[in-house]
Amino acid sequence: MIKHLPPMGWNTWNTFAQNISEELILQSADAMVETGLKDEGYEYIVIDDCWALRERDKAGNLVPDPAKFPHGMKYVADYIHSKGLKFGMYSCCGTMTCARYPASYNHEFADAAAFAEWGVDFLKYDYCFKPNFADGKMLYRRMGLALANCGRDILFSGCSWGADKTHEWIGSTGANMWRSTGDIFDSWESVKSLIKQQYDILPFGGQGCFNDMDMLIVGMNGRGNVGLTGCSENEYKLHFAAWCLLESPLMIGCDIRSMTKETKAILTNRALIDIQQDPRCNRPYLFKFAGNDDFPIIVRALANGDIAVGFFNLSDSPANLWVVADDLGIPFLQGRTLVGAEVYTGAEKRAVNGTLSVDIEGHTCEVYRMTVKNSD
Ligand code: GLA
What we know:
This protein is α/β, with parallel strands linked by helices. Helices cover about 25% and strands about 25% of the residues. It contains ten helices and 18 strands. The chain has helices at about 15, 20-35, 70-80, 110-120, 135-150, 165-170, 190-195, 235-245, 260-265, 270-275, and strands at about 10, 45, 85-90, 120-125, 155-160, 175-180, 185, 210, 225-230, 250, 285-290, 295-300, 305-315, 320-325, 335-340, 350, 355-360, 365-375. It has an eight-stranded parallel sheet. A six-stranded antiparallel sheet has the order 11-12-13-18-15-16, with helices on one face. A two-stranded parallel sheet has the order 7-9. The termini are far apart. The relative contact order is 0.11. The site of alpha-D-galactopyranose has 10 residues, from loops.
């Protein structure tokens, strides 16, 4: 059965785009295991766009490009499965994929059957070249039904970038996750903008259909397909923490065969992954400190009664951010307080006079996992 927690894995697009091959996929599956990423919960190896020939065959089937995938997709799937991992592929609801390869419009049931035959466990489904007369939500419902009838458990990963009010209908399509925004790029501006675009749609994510903030750029350091300026280590830490607190799927986008120890430390931060994978799947909520978009304080109540509180300084200057524990449901006057630690540094933290307060540099976050205690 599909696990009803936000998916974790690796996807080819951010770094490799069209430069994909069987060798890359097999090596990345090896790296997923050897680096320990698998042990931390990363399980999907996803081939994004550009895997097919430019034309379907005479019978109307999608054909994996033999120059890139000489043994076909079943071979790749079998290898990935032999490593205890799961296999993801990509198509699109329009007439072509975003990179202009054949897509699944009017081929949904046949394509879903092919994916099932190949041993696919996850389908990312894009929104490019959707005919104007066609209703996007109907096309997504159609693929949802095609997958539900294909005879294999295939996780449906919608990728309509929030278009056509996706949040209103995506939960009806059978999708387990849905892209709420346009594409990420490897820059601070992109991370900041994607976080701010979540503020108004927090009620639409959560269990069963997670809001996907796009693949991670942690560790790209300015290289690869969406590599721009790159980010500082603090910015990558903030990016990863925001995705975890906001319950986004975690799809790694860097080259995991050669990631640095700093990159690995961020991607395997246990305290943050525990928050992202919290079994209760409570939705996050948000305070804008002093009403300012640059100072989101993101909170999630966790299954064991703890709460995660993330202070984010998206501005360029240091700031003092604070929140009153009463506003988090912790009644100071009933003799309750909060005690916990920061997820990256382990620094201890207590509510003082019923308030959690941090002094925090620009482009930096501090995330605390706090336990409810009786006050002294
Ligand atoms: C769109 C998606 C990206 C990626 C590309 C592939 O832009 O949003 O995530 O899949 O298509 O062409």
